[in-house]
Amino acid sequence: MFDDDTTSGLPQAETSPSGAAPEPAGAVSEEMWLLGQPSLEDYLDYVRRAVVGGAEMSRRPLVDAWRAANDVYADLEEDEAGLADEIACHPLPAAMAPLVEALSATDSFQRTFDRVPTTFGMVELDKLIVSQKRVTKPFAERLAASLTPPPDAAGLFRFCQPIERTDPPVRVRRLSEDRFLFTSASNDLRFHEAALLHPGQLSGHAAFGPIQNILGLVVGYGSNFLSAIRSEDRMVLHNGYHRAVALRMAGITHAPCIIQEVTRRDELELTAASTVSSDPAFYFRAARPPLLKDFFDPRLCTVVPTRRGERHIELAFTVKDYTVYDA
After folding, report:
1. pTM assigned to the model
2. Helix (H) or strand (E) holding 66
3. Of the candidates 194, 268, 212, which has an alpha carbon nearest to the alpha carbon of residue 235?
4. Which residue did the predictor score with more confidence, 130 or 21?
């Protein structure tokens, strides 16, 4: 499976960890970035747009650093060939069973994991394959600090699979009669879906007359569970990058993870980020794909000062009112 040779897509969007306050817009933060993996163009573009002074930086040192990391990965393809296939996955401790049951009953879990068989396991973090190339360092460090002293089994599960969460506020502006702008300091803000609602689902609205239907354009955050996609012996980290890095910063090696099982490319396209589904051979067949532990290898990971931005979601709608007559 997954033996085709397609071109790698763009990196998966960064996911904000639940309960961690992002840096304010305009502040300078630090990004941990994996070099040496596709694509060099993405890295240079990010430096130009987001790194402090990036537009004035010479490209040659950036390319040289990326090439050096790429050479390290070439060596790792021999020294650590097949390492991703050796990832350990153990049953969850008995103390986590009630929390699994509670999580599985939530709407967000059922909506998110309703496509392929899904299980839970204590997954070895270092050997998780990663498709997201950058992580916000202060974010991860604050999360790691919250893990001192080390949590018990229940606390660890709640850290990885938060049901109760505190998300950053969202500002809403009406740009015109038919355009709205939603803004958050968290890059996890997203458009969910267009939903057709019935009048009983609306409250507190003074209508001009009897309401027949409601079209809702839903904006919010992701489910934000620590999850991976497994094919045969390999697992690709799908969501929860900041928490996974924070756990390793805190010295925790295994974590309770939601595992989606895929057996063919069509299932992968339903579940994985476009980066993975567009180039499955790179992640599931390469001798040594990028792993979570690479974020802690100074030969592979660089830290760049980055201007913090804001996530904007702009929604617009169109109304056409006309009559159609029978022929």
Report:
1. 0.87
2. helix 59-79
3. 268
4. 130
